[in-house]
Amino acid sequence: MNVPPVTEARTLAPPERRTAQITANERVGAYRLFTALDASGPPHPVPGQFYMLAGAEGWGGEDGRPYLPRAFSFARARPLPSGVELDFLLEEIGPGTRRLAELRPGEGLHLVGPLGIGFRPASGRPLLVGGGIGVAPLLCLSDALGPEAQVLLGFRTKAHAEAAKLFDAEPALATDDGSIGHAGLVTDLLRSDLERDPAATVFACGPEPMLEAVRALCADLSVPAQLALESGMACGFGACMGCVVPTKNGYVRVCLDGPVLDANTLGSGIWGLGS
Amino acid sequence: LTNLCGIELEGPILNGSGTFDAIAARRTFGDALLDEFPFDCFVSKTITAEPRQGNPPPRLWETPAGLINSIGLPNKGVDGFLESDLPQLSEVPVPLCVSVMGFSRDELASLTGRVGERDEVALIELNVSCPNVETGLVMGADPDETARALEKVRPATEKPLIVKLTPNANDPAAVAAAAESAGADAVSLVNTLKGMAFHPNTREPWLGGVTGGVSGPAVRAIALEQVRSVAGAVSIPVIGMGGIASGRDAMDFMAAGATAIAVGTESFRDPAAGRRIAAELAGLAA
């Protein structure tokens, strides 16, 4: 079979769903940060990898939903003698995220992971670019790269931008409503940064229009970029074939060949937004 | 032990075709997947004569206790499958069943012959839930269409042939009986039920392929009735599936007349679901 090449930025997952225990669930501005102790999972997932999460109880409440688990990049992983403590950043937008937001310390969290391929080491100065809930995988990446790695974050409002305080590095901020930081898009910050010094590698995660703008900008300036994509998926391990995105090599499964893809494998306007 | 058409299985649990990719799962879970393989027989995704990219996304929609998928049978085509996938699938520690689909009777017979001649393949499942370009009819929706397809395919291999029945037929039991008369060794059911969803804001069809197939616990009661009806109409083994999520569900399908059962959508929620259901079933039977 395809034995993963040693260069694949992937920590293997145990081949079964397990139950972790919620240890914290706190509000961070417009988001929630919840933490689970995963007693038997691998201690060192790769930044950019993700887990499939579901409440151990009460999954299937509203109109028989949620039914499927939900995919979340881990924000931080702390190996402890009793297992690995995993942080996830959450925004309540539907039945799955609402149920996860309700989970309290002591309750069970079903989880499969870590899954997918994470961020790869790169040459040049690292430049992290995040938008909204997509800042989550940049937290552990920023920890790994150290405070000298610059972080640019975009949010809708000051309440959302509270998530920037989770970073040890000091991120530059942009908000849609101008309530804190630059009034405008995080890609405005990225453009001025890259025009000053294009010898960078960009690591980005965020909503589709932001990622498309990052892709187009980096293509224009010949800056390598790794993009962490999001896509609706049922399983997270290549079984359902549901999470494909078009690339120059045809459809690829975000859960298996991503979620972190090299920007130059993606065509222009892959999300139907044009470029 | 379960005897399925002369093939000895360690137990009665298969996977539904297209619901588990052993090659992708080994990349994700490593060799631990093989040490504790979740099924007693592995069924491949459906192979066609030519490579297929599959349907444009979005491909999935969550329903109450279920899922609609519109995947469109992406696969490498039979040449790519035999060359690159089959050697990898032969490392799976259980008998291998390959699912094939043809858009004409001759194409289905030719595919069956090419797959059947490979030693790694123990059984062949015929996915007949597609339109026959010669008649415009869905092969598996009509007893005569099914019988005429089997008459062409049967001479192409001596290996056991399983006909995967579609629930989108007027009379699945009549289709099953026609398949048995024309030489099928087993039938499996249910395939997904046709369904669709609309975008919550635009009210345009959500799925890139417009319509898809519904699976999961949402279809279990329908599947149970069809399995019972089919099992009463044939004497060949029946493989039952449709929303099985526990050993108790599996027992229900056995009570309806199934010889073996397949786990599909539940594996999306837990990659080890097959193994868990087998253990629960053994506990209930003891």
Q: Runs of chain A with pLDDT <50, length 5+?
A: none
How are the strands ordered across the major sheet of chain A?
4-3-7-1-2-6-5
**Terminal-residue CA separation of chain B:** 14 Å
By DSSP (H or I, 4+ residues per run), the number of helices of chain B equals: 10
Radius of gyration of chain A: 18 Å
Oligomeric grouping of the chains: heterodimer
Helix content of chain B: 25-40%
Show unreliable segments of chain B.
none
Number of strands of chain A: 16
Mean pLDDT across every amino acid position of chain B: 96
Number of strands of chain B: 14
Structure in words:
- The complex is a heterodimer of chains A (275) and B (286).
- The termini of chain A are far apart.
- In chain A, a hairpin with a 2-residue loop joins strand 5 and strand 6 (83-90).
- Helix content of chain A is 18%, strand content 33%.
- Chain A has helices at 95-102, 136-145, 158-161, 186-196, 208-220, 254-257; strands at residues 18-28, 31-38, 50-55, 70-73, 76-80, 83-90, 108-115, 125-131, 150-155, 172-175, 182-183, 200-205, 225-228, 244-247, 250-253, 260-262.
- Chain A has six helices and 16 strands.
- The longest helix of chain A is centred in the last third of the chain and has 13 residues, at 208-220.
- The mean pLDDT of chain A is 93.
- Chain A has 275 residues and is of the alpha/beta class.
- Chain B is an alpha/beta fold.
- Helix content of chain B is 34%, strand content 19%.
- In chain B, the strands form three sheets. Chain B has an eight-stranded parallel β-sheet with strand order 3-14-13-10-9-8-7-4. In chain B, strands 5-6-12-11 form a four-stranded antiparallel β-sheet, with no helix packed on it. A two-stranded antiparallel ribbon of chain B has the order 1-2.
- The longest helix of chain B is centred in the N-terminal third of the chain and has 13 residues, at 77-89.
- The mean pLDDT of chain B is 96.
